[in-house]
Amino acid sequence: MSGSNEIGPPGLSRRSLLAGAGLGLAAAGAVAAQEVPPGLPGDGPPESDPDFAGQDTAAPSPEPVAAPGQNWDWVRSQWALDWSWVNLSAMLFASNPRIVRNAITRHREALDANPVTYLEANQRPLQNAARRAAGQYFGADPEAVALTESTTSGIGLVYNGLIIGYGEEVLTTTHDYYVTHESLRLAAQRNGATVRRISLFDQAREASIPQIVGRLMGAITERTRVLALTWVHSSTGLKMPIGAIARALRGVNAGREPHKRVLLCVDGVHGFGVEDETMETLGCDVLAAGCHKWLFGPRGTGVVFFRPDALPRFSPTIPSFLAPGAYSAWLGNYDPGPNTGARMTPGGFKAFEHVWALNEAFQFHNMVGKAAIAARTRQLASRLKLALSQMPHIALRTPIDPALSAGIVSFDVPGLSADGVVRRLRSARIIGSAAPYLTRHVRLTPSFRNTEADVDFAVQVLADIRR
Ligand SMILES: Cc1ncc(COP(=O)(O)O)c(C=O)c1O
């Protein structure tokens, strides 16, 4: 452990990380300014709303953020978990690091003291600050970021809002999760589009990037308008090669008119907060993720990132309180104009103490460092996978290669049910889960708040599980 004031990749100081974050925020500060009438729910007077002057209005956290060295003990100390349990459960539901807990408390106390004035002062500025923080973290245009309540609500809004017609098709896979399949099924009932599912591999551990890309490209037809995929499968832990798929798709789209271009839409939740990627490096058109899993953000928060040129292919489902001009358009009875990330953000009053504390969740990740978090997660997941792969009584389901895996480690203990294994782990005070799919695998999901000792303890319990 280094005693220097450094965390993250060698040579990258905390100061430079924070400066980078600040630069990104400033550069991303141009969330559009448009007139809105004062005094309406969800709107505020534009002249009194500094956000509309394009300033960075994120309320500075009163807490000094300091990560002493590349010190995973310090990182771990930021959580208030019950440490008598080994939580290998980052893929499920977050508990928050201190800076996020404190931000939630600060906002909650202020809302309890005077809900209306605190709301009026902060509603739009702090939501836009969260969009800018999300955009900066994920290399995305903040104007094209929508805030949601979860991965599920984001995916529902994306596929419900997809502009697609009878005779056109969405291509998805048998490996995707319930929320993608069900959102597509519900949308297809209304828009008459076809949803087709294909299989990309028989065994995730034997899958290869050329095979996955080849099967997807081979299944695209003249009618295909969307590829609906999942970044990291929550059944087997396979990480889809989104970048390679996006590159191959460019060739398919080269000769197509814009409205017939095949969009790459991704449920990104199990890569978001884990992998050192951006919208640019992934190359997808839309990525939805909850912030209350691997990002360890406030419960009940999520984001959707759009490539700006994909936004016209979607329309909002829920009226926005955030979009400048939305109320004027309603009062003036005219169309509010082109689609934006703000318009895709559902309105209504919310648990704003959670929405606003998203800023600190991104701040925490930036401070620890995306590359450091990705490397630490990979190191712990690899340690677990290697140990399990050497146990003859365990069938590892997740690829070992980090190019095809992230933080989810899936496996079976032949002869025992997945639920039975999870119960046995719980009796040893280890939290894992069984995948809610037709074929149920056990999942342990180390993250950057875990230790080698956590992983080794799980390995030890699993070594003895059949006794
Ligand atoms: C792939 C995938 N997408 C979405 C979800 C649901 O996420 P959220 O709770 O953020 O809606 C899960 C499960 O938790 C999942 O495994």
Give a verbal description of the structure.
With 467 residues, the protein is an alpha/beta fold. It has a domain at 370-463: Aspartate Aminotransferase, domain 1 (Alpha-Beta Complex), CATH 3.90.1150.10. 39% of the residues lie in helices and 11% in strands. The chain has 16 helices and 13 strands. It has helices at 14-27, 72-77, 98-113, 115-137, 151-161, 178-191, 209-219, 242-253, 279-282, 326-332, 341-344, 352-356, 358-368, 370-389, 418-427, 452-463, and strands at 86-87, 145-148, 169-173, 194-198, 224-230, 263-267, 286-290, 302-306, 395-396, 409-412, 430-431, 433-434, 442-444. It has a seven-stranded mixed sheet, sandwiched between helices. The protein has a four-stranded antiparallel sheet with strand order 9-10-13-12. Strands 1-11 form a two-stranded parallel sheet. α8 (242-253) links the parallel β5 and β6 (263-267). α4 (115-137) runs parallel beside α13 (358-368) and α14 (370-389) runs parallel beside α16. The longest helix is centred in the first third of the chain and has 23 residues, at 115-137. The chain is globular. The two termini are 38 Å apart. The relative contact order is 0.16. Bound molecules: pyridoxal-5'-phosphate (PLP). Pyridoxal-5'-phosphate (PLP) binds at residues 150-152, 177, 179, 230, 234, 267, 269-270, 290, 302. Pyridoxal-5'-phosphate binds next to α5.
